[in-house]
């Protein structure tokens, strides 16, 4: 599943096509969750990303695109996979495949809290810490994937920032020292931007410290198991990460 930085790449790429303010001349695809005719001849007001969601904003509604586990997109090109939604502008075409598409009515800021998005300029780390402290009995491995706290964090970011912060994934939030929580929240954003640059450079996997690794940088064996309520695959080092 694409994580927040990957959706930022999509947003940045589409911005280079200068489609903001342009009219949609043709709508195609097999999407059933929205009325395609609603988009025809509408002008795009803006493009935004929120965590794992890509947002195409119009005057009175927004189209939300979630790429799920295997979603893809193409600009000015097509593929054999069934097209979910295709938007044709004067000089460019944008095609989305294997994704979930929804319509959100009204002001997008009433639906999305951009201060929870780790890749947004509105990101507020203090707010994330406050939300974590309101969930004292929860496991940190679960709440790092809580999109209302850390919008854009997926399994890769979860594993990497827990290792960088030296916190065991099965730590209960109430037992984690405040200084460690602050470090963790800081690392979420710092690593998010490192992820973004490494993804652009095609070097993301080369820089992983624990994710999909057999040993940590100090040579300790990496453990791998399904953890927490989410039962997501977790990679961690018992030698480096303290369980609180």
Brief synopsis:
This protein has 244 residues and is of the alpha+beta class. The protein contains five helices and ten strands. It has helices at 4-16, 125-133, 140-143, 155-165, 178-201; strands at 26-28, 46-50, 53-57, 61-66, 72-75, 83-88, 93-97, 100-105, 223-227, 232-236.
SSE string, helix = H, strand = E?
A: HEEEEEEEEHHHHEE
Kindly report the average pLDDT value: 97
Domains, number: 2
Largest sheet: 4 strands, antiparallel
Radius of gyration: 20 Å
Strand element count: 10
Helix segment count? 5
Strand content: 15-25%
- Kindly, what is the distance between the CA atoms of the first and last residues, rounded to a whole number of angstroms? 29 Å
Provide an overview of this structure:
- The structure is a single chain.
- The protein has 244 residues and is an alpha+beta fold.
- The protein folds into two domains: 4-112, N-terminal domain of MutM-like DNA repair proteins, CATH 3.20.190.10; 124-236, Helicase, Ruva Protein, domain 3 (Orthogonal Bundle), CATH 1.10.8.50.
- 25% of the residues lie in helices and 20% in strands.
- The protein contains five helices and ten strands, in the order H-E-E-E-E-E-E-E-E-H-H-H-H-E-E.
- The protein has a four-stranded antiparallel beta sheet, with no helix packed on it.
- Helix 1 packs across helix 5, helix 2 crosses helix 5 (178-201) and helix 4 crosses helix 5.
- The radius of gyration is 20 Å and the shape is elongated.
- The mean pLDDT is 97.
């Amino acid at each position: 599943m694409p994580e927040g930085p990957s959706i930022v790449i999509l947003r940045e790429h589409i911005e280079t096509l200068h489609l903001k303010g342009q009219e949609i001349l043709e709508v195609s695809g097999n999407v059933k969750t929205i009325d395609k005719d609603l988009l025809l001849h509408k002008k795009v007001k803006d493009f935004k990303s929120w965590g794992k969601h890509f947002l195409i904003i119009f005057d009175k509604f927004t189209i939300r695109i979630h790429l799920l586990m295997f979603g893809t997109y193409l600009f000015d090109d097509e593929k054999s996979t069934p097209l979910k939604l295709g938007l044709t502008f004067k000089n460019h075409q944008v095609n989305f495949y294997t994704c979930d598409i929804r319509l959100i009515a009204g002001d997008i800021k009433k639906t999305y809290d951009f201060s929870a998005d780790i890749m947004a300029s509105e990101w507020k780390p203090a707010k994330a810490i406050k939300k974590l402290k309101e969930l004292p009995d929860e496991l940190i491995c679960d709440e790092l994937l809580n999109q209302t706290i850390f919008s854009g964090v997926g399994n890769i970011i979860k594993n990497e920032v827990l290792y960088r912060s030296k916190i065991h994934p099965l730590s209960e939030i109430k037992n984690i020292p405040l200084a460690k929580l602050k470090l963790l929240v800081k690392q979420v954003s710092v690593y998010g931007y490192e992820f973004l640059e490494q993804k652009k450079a095609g070097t993301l996997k080369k820089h992983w410290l624990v994710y999909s690794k057999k040993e940590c940088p100090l040579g300790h064996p990496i453990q791998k198991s399904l953890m927490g309520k989410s039962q997501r695959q977790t990679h961690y080092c018992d030698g480096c990460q303290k369980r609180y």
